[in-house]
Amino acid sequence: MASLGGKVVSNLRDKFRIVTKDSVHWFPGHMRKGLRQMQQNLKNVDCIIEVHDARVPISGRCRDFRTTVSGLKPHILVLNKKDLADLTRAEEYRKNLASEGFEHVIFTNFKDQKCQGMQSILPLAIKLIENSPRYNRAVSPDFSAMIIGVPNVGKSSLINRLRNKYLHKKNATAVGAVPGITRSVLTRIKISEKPPVFVLDTPGILTPYVRDVLSGLKLALVGCLQDHLVGQEIIADFLLFWLNKQKKFEYVNQLKLSQPNDNILEVLTEIAMNLNRTKRIRNFDGQRIVRPDYIFAAEHFIKTFRNGELGHVFPAMFARVTFYPTLVYNVFMEKISSRRWWNRIDDTVILGALPFRHMTKQLVDEEKVVAVVSMNEDYELKLFSNSAEEWSKNGVQFLQLSTTDIFETPCQDKLEKGVNFINKFRVDEKNPGTVYVHCKAGRTRSATLVGCYLMKVILIKLFNNLMNKIIL
């Protein structure tokens, strides 16, 4: 049971019942073709402009696209839809991104023509290109940028805004409030005359296969899947379940409902009646009857959520939503860039990304891994990585320090526990061996733990050196 204004709300679901086991497939031909075209065109661009959703600034992105087979390119990260995001943590996001090498971060709202962030993008891009080596494009008189990002974050809208502002011309590329509008890497589009600047629009790229319907529902809810792939009423039902489970009852007042309700049919009926939306249909006898327009009501409910009218985003949910797309990007970038899946830090520690099961033999036999520290949550490990029992069968000790991706940093207790665990396997201790420390990408959660470990190692060495000098 939950409470709202002193009233008790009962009979809320604790699980979302899925009536089908079909999986959602979302990797249309334009995405596959787009990936190939992006790789082919990287050598012909001077700057990467990555557009992402400001509601999930840390996760779900192509986090290492700036390092490619053609070398380092200037990289600008544009976090769009800031009007829907909680910007009280904007400086924290900037610091986290800066620690990963993203120095140029701009928050924008493409719907606001006077947005200062949007107006600063092109001048910054020109400045970065002019101050960077252009390699094979050094003799080219014009500048070229590639716009990248996941679906439905505003890539095409950015191009049109820039074109309208600097060339005073109409839209050059189609936009829409649904994912998948841009179908391929288009021809170059001019957005500036002095200096001449061209951009390439690209399709949003997501994971080729949504493993279960629940993951598909989450992607659909935040607008990364077209609604009809799942069904508007099903998405609305999942949204209702999720809001109730999180005790987020703002929807009651926002939608002018009488009370919290866990029955989606009753909720949609009340929404439709409040909006005076009905449909005339024929019943089994052929007679015309009037009934609530459930599809319209469901779309209104979903739109209200996406517009930020039911509160800001909820970290745990978006960490799960973006897990598979980000994991695919990590695999993709490991294939085309200089980035490695793991790196040895010292004789004891390897810092790496999620260790897939097929990597077990290599880690144990070649890297001499005798222990693993995972900063992942259970859902991140479930499908691809070893469980504690599976590691144990390979003679590897396992410690899990679950930390939610995106917004949460490892707490002090977990960091202390992790450092103490690693220290048991130091080469100068009784149980020498290598410890593999990982999260999903090996860039944030696990790097924090390894950083703490290194600080302790350095302090110990400094102390020992100091004591030796004192004794001498």
Report on the structure:
The chain has 472 residues and is an alpha/beta fold. It folds into 3 domains: 118 residues, Conserved Hypothetical Protein Ylqf, Chain: A, domain 2, CATH 1.10.1580.10; 176 residues, Rossmann fold; 132 residues, Protein tyrosine phosphatase superfamily (Protein-Tyrosine Phosphatase, Chain A, Alpha-Beta Complex). Helices cover 38% and strands 16% of the residues. The strands form 6 sheets. The chain has a 6-stranded mixed beta sheet with strand order 8-7-4-9-11-10, covered by helices on one side. A 5-stranded mixed beta sheet has the order 15-16-19-17-18. It has a two-stranded antiparallel ribbon with strand order 1-2. Strand 5 and strand 6 form a beta hairpin. Helix 5 crosses helix 6 and helix 6 crosses helix 9. The longest helix is centred in the C-terminal third of the chain and has 27 residues. The chain is globular and about 95 Å long. The relative contact order is 0.11. About 8% of the residues have low confidence.
Short key terms for the protein model shown above:
single chain; 472 residues; alpha/beta; Conserved Hypothetical Protein Ylqf, Chain: A, domain 2; Protein-Tyrosine Phosphatase, Chain A; 3 domains; globular
Total number of distinct structural domains: 3
Number of strands: 19
Q: What low-confidence regions span 5 or more consecutive residues with pLDDT below 50?
A: 19-32, 66-71, 173-185, 205-211
Measured by DSSP, the beta-strand proportion falls in 15-25%
Looking at the structure, what is the overall shape? Answer: globular
Put simply, the count of helices is 16
The CATH superfamily of the largest domain turns out to be P-loop containing nucleotide triphosphate hydrolases
Tell me the strand order in the biggest sheet.
8-7-4-9-11-10
Proper CATH architecture of the largest domain: 3-Layer(aba) Sandwich
Main sheet, how many strands, which sense, barrel? 6 strands, mixed
Helix content percent band: 25-40%
- Radius of gyration (CA) equals 25 Å
Mean pLDDT: 78
How far apart are the termini?
70 Å
CATH domain topology of the largest domain:
Rossmann fold
Which structural class matches the secondary elements?
A: alpha/beta
For the record, what CATH class of the largest domain applies?
Alpha Beta
